[in-house]
Amino acid sequence: xxxxxxxxxxxxxxxxxxxxxxxxxxxxxxxxxxxxxxxxxxxxxxxxxxxxxxxxxxxxxxxxxxxxxxxxxxxxxxxxxxxxxxxxxxxxxxxxxxxxxxxxxxxxxxxxxxxxxxxxxxxxxxxxxxxxxxxxxxxxxxxxxxxxxxxxxxxxx
Length: 157
Hints:
Layout: H1 13-27, H2 38-49, H3 56-64, H4 72-82, H5 87-90, H6 92-111, H7 113-120, H8 125-141
Helix pairs in contact: 1-3, 2-3, 2-4
């Protein structure tokens, strides 16, 4: 029998779980901005697993807080899809530690910076320096501040 996550007394665990599920969905939302449906998420998880692990309706229940006693295998599958560890859903200390990293990742993804950084992977030091110089020049042309100035909206890591 699959185990269930036990709620912590005094905590609204269904609301915390729903928030975390929704954050993962936002993280995985393509750059086009079109949020995947719960059915699309379930299909991706099930295709990856090679079997029926979770339904779109159940993901909706998790995301809306309707499910208060989720099965661990459902959370493991969703965590894997979201690129995190299952502890993210029920370990507040763990979630607090990874939250700044996830916020930074979401910001980089939303602005397209992550795509540029990933495409620069494997380039020589000289080529990466040229990319940096080009970005600085483009920022100057568009009247943007120096990129070395920390953005107060970004978490420090």
